[in-house]
Structures are given as structure tokens and as C-alpha cells.
Design a protein that fits this description.
Layout: H1 2-14, H2 17-26, H3 31-61, H4 69-97, H5 114-132
Helix pairs in contact: 1-5, 2-3, 3-4
């Protein structure tokens, strides 16, 4: 379990989303799938930042004891939902305005370099350790 988490951490720290989207494109994954993943990653980040700012504002407004904290959290959830709905409508309208036809162009094409060889070697070392030490037991 620890080795799997370590491998995931190494992969996520070394690989940006544009590189992953380009890799999916190279593997002939359908464009709609790559576009959906790309938009999901972008909006999770945007909505996470928005929620963080809203929570900070709520903390600054509420001083002392408040018996209605759950209603405040429900208000935050509702506001976040409405903001995400507005963002989705704006995204749809922008795609419609630009005559989106379902083809998703990836901005960078992956190329193999020395860094890739280093990470493959690190992954193989982690796999060898996993096998050698009894499959994570």
C-alpha cells in the first residue's frame, strides 16, 4: 500500500495535466474523454479555490459561538453549486460560439527524454521492491 502511494506521488509530482492529456491523445483515447478529464481537473481546481475563499470569508464574519454553523455550510454549498452551474453554462456557450465540433486539440505532444528514463527506472525499482518484500505485507 505504501509503495503504491509512493508511486502515485512520484507520478503526480513529475507529470503535469497537459502532459497526461497529450499521452491520452497519443494512446488514441477518444477526444471527448480527454476533454472531459481536462475540464474536470480545471474546474476542480477553480471550485476548490472558490470554496477556500468562501470559507475564509465565513470565518472572518463569524466571531464567537454560532449555533447555526450547519446552515452556514449549507449556504456555502448552495452558492458553490450555483457558481459551478454558471461556469458550466458559460463554458457551453463559449464552446457553442466557437463552433466546437468534438475535436480536442492537445497543445503539447509528448516526447521521451532523459527524465522519462529516470522515472521509468524509479518505477521499476519500486516495483522490484514491491515484489521482493512480499507484495506490501
Amino acid at each position: 500500500m505504501l509503495l503504491a502511494a509512493l508511486a502515485a506521488a512520484i507520478f503526480s509530482s513529475a507529470t503535469g495535466w497537459p502532459s497526461m492529456a497529450a499521452a491520452f491523445s497519443t494512446l488514441r483515447v477518444p477526444d471527448i474523454f480527454v476533454m472531459t478529464l481536462d475540464m474536470t481537473v480545471k474546474y476542480i481546481s477553480l471550485l476548490g479555490d472558490l470554496l477556500s475563499e468562501m470559507l475564509c470569508a465565513l470565518k472572518l464574519r463569524s466571531v464567537g459561538r454560532d449555533g447555526r454553523k450547519m446552515s452556514s455550510l449549507a449556504g456555502l454549498a448552495g452558492t458553490l453549486f450555483l457558481k459551478s452551474k454558471d461556469a458550466a453554462v458559460a463554458q457551453y456557450q463559449a464552446m457553442e460560439c466557437r463552433c466546437f465540433d468534438g475535436k480536442y486539440a492537445v497543445s503539447c505532444r509528448p516526447g521521451l527524454g532523459w527524465r522519462d528514463a529516470v522515472f521509468v527506472a524509479a518505477d521499476l525499482a519500486i516495483l522490484a521492491a514491491f515484489i521482493a518484500f512480499g507484495r506490501g505485507r
